[in-house]
Amino acid sequence: MVGAVTIIMGLMIFLISKMSDLKWLPGDIVIRKKDFVFIFPITTMIIISIVLTVILNIISKFFK
């Protein structure tokens, strides 16, 4: 069940990023140098964590 939710969330994020011009949220750390790009999506990870927590809590209460 957790794997299915993770795959669905990943596909949703992928499709949303392809459809919109918004690649990184404000607060994500992007360091660009000459031949190097470092991306640390801290804001994106926090939002995904909150969404997954809410979804998993709803699922766990539903199956009790």
The number of helical segments is 2
Helix and strand element order = HEEH
Number of strands: 2
Q: How far apart are the first and last residues' alpha carbons, in Å?
A: 15 Å
What is the oligomeric state here?
A: single chain
Largest sheet: 2 strands, antiparallel
Question: How many domain modules?
Answer: 1
Low-confidence stretches: none
The overall pLDDT average reads 80
Strand content: 15-25%
Spatially, the strands of the biggest sheet line up as: 1-2
Helix content: 55-70%
What's the Cα radius of gyration? 15 Å
* CA-based shape: elongated
Q: Kindly name the structural category.
A: alpha+beta
How would you describe what is shown here?
This protein has one domain (2-62). Helix content is 61%, strand content 16%. It contains 2 helices and 2 strands, in the order H-E-E-H. It has helices at residues 2-19, 42-62; strands spanning 29-33, 36-40. The chain has a two-stranded antiparallel ribbon. A hairpin with a 2-residue loop joins strand 1 and strand 2 (36-40). It is elongated and about 55 Å long. The mean pLDDT is 80.
Keywords:
two-stranded antiparallel sheet; 64 residues; 2 helices; alpha+beta; 2 strands
